[in-house]
């Protein structure tokens, strides 16, 4: 800001004037700074390598897939129409124990527990897989409940079913689609 002397030097007091655009609002400078900071934050978060925390249905060649990742767990289902065969694999950081029975417990509006002795361990015991020709109860459990817990011996793995229902529906539609 500059000083402009109005009138004669000895007659008028010194007045200060700041030149600003006619539509100037001091709040806009704060808003612009905030906006720029938020854009930078969004860009940084967009490019961070984070695990996908949502359920996602898709395909992998002839296979229909349904996957979900949480910080301590990966859940991966497949349907192969050539079998027809379904698989579900629960992977965790620590190895699963060698247990004669594996159970999948669904908690929520339509709670149920499914168990089997037809499971195998892989990936140095960290992945537990069940293979079957029908998964109706599993798919209903995934789409109608709030959480699921896989249990083998003393070990368990709980994962959220938040957002699973629409992706389970996509998986089921893929599994029932005609194949060439």
Provide keyphrases for this structure.
180 residues, alpha+beta, six-stranded antiparallel sheet, four-stranded antiparallel sheet, 3 helices, 24% helix
Task: Characterize the structure shown.
The protein starts with a strand and ends with a helix. The protein contains three helices and twelve strands; from the N terminus they run E-E-H-E-E-E-E-E-E-E-E-H-E-E-H. The chain has 180 residues and is α+β, with helices and mostly antiparallel strands. It has helices at residues 26-46, 136-144, 164-176, and strands spanning 2-5, 14-17, 56-60, 63-70, 73-80, 85-92, 102-107, 112-116, 119-122, 127-132, 147-152, 155-160. Helix 2 packs antiparallel against helix 3. The radius of gyration is 30 Å and the shape is elongated. The strands form three sheets. A six-stranded antiparallel β-sheet has the order 3-4-5-6-10-9, with helices on one face. Strand 1 and strand 2 (14-17) form a beta hairpin.
Q: Helix fraction? A: 10-25%
Spans where pLDDT lies below 50 across 5 or more residues: none
How would a textbook summarize the main sheet?
A: 6 strands, antiparallel
State which percent range the strand residues make up. 35-45%
CA(first)-CA(last) distance? 77 Å
Q: Numbering strands along the chain, what is their spatial order in the largest sheet?
A: 3-4-5-6-10-9
Discrete helix count: 3
Q: Structural class of the helix and strand makeup?
A: alpha+beta
Coarse shape = elongated
Q: Radius of gyration from the CA trace?
A: 30 Å
What is the succession of H and E elements? EEHEEEEEEEEHEEH
């Amino acid at each position: 800001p500059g000083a402009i002397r109005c009138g004669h030097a000895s007659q008028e007091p010194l007045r200060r004037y700041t030149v600003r655009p006619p539509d100037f609002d001091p709040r806009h400078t704060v808003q612009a700074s905030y906006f720029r900071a938020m854009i930078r934050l969004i860009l940084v978060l967009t490019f961070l390598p984070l695990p996908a925390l949502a359920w996602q249905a898709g395909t992998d060649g002839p296979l229909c897939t349904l996957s979900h990742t949480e910080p301590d767990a990966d859940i991966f289902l497949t349907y192969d129409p050539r079998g027809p065969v379904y698989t579900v694999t629960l992977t965790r950081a620590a190895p699963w124990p060698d247990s004669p029975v594996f159970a999948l417990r669904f908690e929520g509006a339509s709670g149920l527990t499914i168990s089997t002795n037809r499971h195998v361990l892989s990936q140095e015991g960290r992945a537990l897989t069940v293979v079957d020709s029908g998964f109706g109860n599993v798919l209903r459990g995934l789409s109608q409940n709030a959480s699921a817990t896989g249990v083998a011996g003393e070990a368990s793995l709980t994962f959220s079913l938040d957002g699973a229902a629409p992706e389970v529906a996509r998986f089921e539609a893929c599994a029932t689609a005609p194949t060439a």
